[in-house]
Amino acid sequence: MNQKVLFYSLYERFWHWIQALGVTLLLLTGFEISYPTQLDVLGFENAVRVHNLVGLFLVVNALLALFYNLAAGLIERYIPSVGDVFPKGLEHASYYIRGIFKGSPHPFDKTPDKRLLPLQKVTYFIVLNLLLPLMVLTGLLKLFVDAYPELIEALGGLTVIGPIHRVGAWLFASFLILHVYMTTTGPTWLANLSAMITGYGHVERADEETPR
Ligand code: HEM
Fold first, then answer.
1. pLDDT tens digit at each of 212 positions of the chain
2. What does the domain layout of the chain look like in residue ranges?
3. Which atom of ligand 1 is the closest one to the Cα of 193?
């Protein structure tokens, strides 16, 4: 039976949309700082100010989310198992490469207590635990370059830290494009987006736990 159930709590949706807006702003202002002649919306000085402020705000947002997930005992849902990479991840990838274009059924059911599918778990784990901290760290090093010159030099100087931050930004942009595309692969094009806005989605059976 198809039933409407709560997938995302108000706080989870709030966190998500703040994060989405913040990362989009960081990418745009970062592009303006890197290529000021190609994108001139805020002006270089303002773009730097907004970039730094939004970056620091997102660090707080990420730490609050970490606290929320630890305190609510929900953190495990974001930790992929070996099985999520192989064989489940492979089966999942094969669906996106072939099955989806042939109209095959989705290999995994999305339910409130298993709402992250194998590849999502792996991707979010990499983005939130490797890419995001790498961007924060390299961003902070760039921000405090005048205050801690020896530290920056010991780490290879701005000629190393700068390109790492820039490559990370392109990886983030790639994630964003892929992520938005993937959200359209639910039961309908807009089903996942609607769930992340209203909190509610549909499942075949409603005997799963309601998320806290
Ligand atoms: C315009 C930007 C974005 C849009 C439209 C968007 C949309 C969505 C939608 C519709 C979902 C629910 C369906 C799903 O899990 O695939 C989702 C989940 C998720 N998104 Fe995004 N997103 C955006 C940006 C971001 C960014 C920048 C991040 C992280 C840095 C992010 C991290 C996540 C995570 C971790 C989930 C899973 C949440 C959970 O189930 O606990 N998203 N996104």
1. 789 999 999 999 999 999 999 999 999 999 999 999 999 999 999 999 999 999 999 999 999 999 999 999 999 999 999 999 999 999 999 999 999 999 999 999 999 989 999 999 999 999 999 999 999 999 999 999 999 999 999 999 999 999 999 999 999 999 999 999 999 999 899 999 999 999 999 997 645 444 54
2. 3-203
3. 10
Three-class secondary structure of residue 203 per DSSP: strand
Q: Which pair of tokens denotes residue 173?
A: 């942009």
Report CA(16)–ligand 1 centroid distance (Å). 6
For tokens 């209203």, what's the residue? Answer: 198
CB 155 within 8 A of CB 141: yes
CB 15 within 8 A of CB 61: yes
This prediction has a pTM of: 0.90
N-term to C-term CA, the chain = 23
Which CATH number describes the domain made up of 3-203? 1.20.950.20
38 burial via Cβ count (<10 Å: 0-12, 13-18, 19+): exposed
Which amino acid does the sequence have at 15?
W
Q: 110 alpha carbon to ligand 1 midpoint, in Å? A: 15
- Angle in degrees, 0-180, between the axes of helices 158-183 and 10-34, rounded to the nearest 10: 130
Interval between CA 120 and ligand 1 midpoint (Å): 10
